[in-house]
Amino acid sequence: MPFKRFASDPTKAMHQDLVLPTARPGSRLEVVKKTKKKPQQVGKVDKVKGDVLEANGKHSMAIIAGFFTPEINIRDKVGQRVFVPSTNEEGTVAGPFGKAGKCKVNFPKGISAEPGAKAELYATASS
Q1: By CB distance 3.0 to 4.6 Å, which of 43, 70, 94, 110 could disulfide with 106?
Q2: How distant, in Å, are the alpha carbons of 11, 26, 36 from that of 39?
Q3: How far apart are CA 71 and CA 90, in angstroms?
């Protein structure tokens, strides 16, 4: 909204030509809804492996199938976030497993999901 000053005005006050609309009682500002991030890929837990954590008795690693095709270099995807919705457990891609597009996923707090459980791969690394 631009303001104007007139040289002939002795008070040197600022004037505005714009007329604001009248307030509408009861109106609200639009609320911006946050959208849930969609997974980049969906796969399934193939096997649960690794050492059993002493703190909670869960395994530390899982083999996940369905995220990648055999042509994709999984080593470039190391560090991407993996989430298992059935147990709310989160891990990161640790590397490839075999040549069929499966990958090893490290779960620092352990994984209790059964083989066949859904897993989601997200594009950003966990923070």
Answers
A1: 94
A2: 63, 39, 9
A3: 26
Locate 78 and state its tokens.
């190391």
Average pLDDT over residues 72-96: 92
- Are 92 and 104 in contact by the 8 Å Cβ rule? The answer is no
Residue whose C-alpha is closest to residue 67's, from 94, 48, 36, 87:
94
- Residues near 32 by beta carbon (within 8 Å), at least 6 away in sequence: none
| Cβ neighbours of 50 (radius 10 Å) | 19
Report the predicted TM-score, pTM, of the whole model to 2 decimal places: 0.66
How does pLDDT run across 114-127, given as a tens digit for each residue? Answer: 999 999 998 865 44
Q: Measured between alpha carbons, how far is 33 from 122 in angstroms, rounded to an integer?
A: 20
Quote the pLDDT of residue 126.
45
Total Cβ atoms within 10 A of residue 85:
13
